[in-house]
Amino acid sequence: MTSLDKPTEHTExxxxxxxxxxxxxxxxxxxxxxxxxxxxxxxxxxxxxxxxNKDLHLSALAALGVSLLLVVVRLVxxxxxxxxxxxxxxVAFGVVFAMMTGDAKDFYLPGMLYTLGLALAYIITxxxxxxxxGLMLGPVFKENLSWxxxxxxxxxxxxxxxxxxxxxxxxxxxxxxxxxxxxDTTQFGWVLVALKIPPFLLAVWLTWVFLAKAPPPIDVFxxxxxxxxxxxxxxxxxxx
Length: 240
Fold this sequence. Notes:
Blueprint: H1 12-30, H2 32-53, H3 56-76, H4 82-101, H5 109-127, H6 132-137, H7 146-149, H8 152-182, H9 185-194, H10 197-212, H11 220-239
InterPro entries: UCP010219 (IPR016566)
Transmembrane segments: 56-77, 84-101, 113-141, 162-182, 188-211
Keywords: Membrane, Transmembrane, Transmembrane helix
């Protein structure tokens, strides 16, 4: 075992630093407050307009329009637009489904199917030993896949977090799919909007709890830079 592979000694300062890094990484990966707003606003606008006038076309186009506006705002502010772009694609699929079937509830169907598929992906990857949360957050923490073989405590934390996300999203799907068949459009839409943020926040909080208690990430980029500098120093020594 090299010094880089040895567990880091957990002092109070180290733990505070690890928690801060974890919070920042989760904020970046999941979009923070603005990302949550961009997730909620299109659906909220859709159900609000449909509740008032039952106009599917106006509701769908308004939701799509505000999604595009959120992307434009991101681009103008030169901020990362990946969360806003993903929102546009989700809304666009919903608009297409609803327009094709003429049923306003189908606006929500692509997002529900995505949620269910994502829940299964979290659980399946955790069972396979390559938890999806680790694949998503590894690059953010500059550890890539080093947690798989060199940091077992961190791998365990990623597995726990993936299970948390999977089970929470499955529970959400278990609520929404029966309502999709039984509830009317306005009731279903308001329930769906209400369930946008709380499950997400719970999953993010549990991820933070698991990772804050895990060993710190191994910065593979710093390792590569150190190795490159070592080789350059050896080359200069040999040349001298």
